[in-house]
Amino acid sequence: xxxxxxxxxxxxxxxxxxxxxxxxxxxxxxxxxxxxxxxxxxxxxxxxxxxxxxxxxxxxxxxxxxxxxxxxxxxxxxxxxxxxxxxxxxxxxxxxxxxxxxxxxxxxxxxxxxxxxxxxxxxxxxxxxxxxxxxxxxxxxxxxxxxxxxxxxxxxxxxxxxxxxxxxxxxxxxxxxxxxxxxxxxxxxxxxxxxxxxxxxxxxxxx
Length: 207
Hints:
By secondary structure, the protein is mainly β. The chain has helices at residues 13-22, 192-200; strands spanning 2-5, 27-30, 48-50, 68-70, 83-85, 88-90, 103-105, 108-110, 128-130, 148-153, 168-173. It starts with a strand and ends in a 7-residue tail after the last helix.
């Protein structure tokens, strides 16, 4: 894979297209500034974005199979219709990212901030999520079945119709649990302390 250092100017769609064309395949973009870039519809399969600044960039309907985003600023990015198959996000800032309508399969997130992100219907089936903040995120109809969440935050997320059967939530911050919230996590595994917090709202103690 060709490693491309950042150009001496903010890059746009034409720069990315040229880089892929000139190197006849996937490349590693290192330190590029792609703020507001429109990368919609591009074939970015197997590409790596490392330490790139791409706030408000648009990846709508882009192909991103086996692509990797490492230590990137992806705040307020748009991913509608993007093909995210085995795509990996590590140490990324993704506050406000909109992935509604993305075609996602085996997407992985590690140590990412997805605060207030739009993730309705996204599949995390059997995923291992480590250090991910979903605080205030839209996770309606998301699939967390058999996922393992470690050091993750679900506080104040919209979990309407999300599925948690078999999910291990013992390492997750679920926020201030109330009895009416319990149904959202039906079938999930929670810790003794989380159960005690839940029952504590009823004035009960777990010994």
